[in-house]
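Residues pack. Consider this:
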Amino acid sequence: MASDPQVKMNFWGRILNRAGWSVSVKAPRRDKCVICVAPHTSNWDFVLGYLAWLSVGRKANFVMKKAWFVFPLNFFFRSLGGIPVSRQGSGGKLTASLEEKFRTEPYLNLAITPEGTRRGTARWHTGFLRIAYDAHVPVQIGIIDYANKRISVDEEFQPTGNIEADMAAVKKYYTGHKEAAKYPDKFITD
């Protein structure tokens, strides 16, 4: 199931395994990191990615529209590690508030989909790179591969601060993984 020999298949891993999925996490365990997850073409990406992280004994955090954090859902989403955000007119405030969370929280594994949408787009958001660079945390690269029913987080890098170069490297990593997407026609890296 998981590549880490210290990790025994837990309840979440057994669920994924029963559904035919495997999980590989070779990136080191970190108290603080940004997890870049792609392709993102389906709502199932969240469920599968979240279960994969739980299956190796880690807890993931994620950003979600503030509108979903209403009673009683707010308790549920926060318990899962959800962080409510308002993106409308936020400018750099969202990035700054997430950087602050990295400074103040003892544990934060923040999963972000750089596409920012399930629709196809070549314009990926760079905020995850800015957050990781400014917070001095690594970016771990995750792939949800529907074609092979495999979820992996095997690579890690430290952003350089050159957002264009870092994004080019991230997109280069994902190039060739179009068929991994649940809906390949919606996954665009160039």
User: Anything to note?
Assistant: The chain has one domain: 11-181.
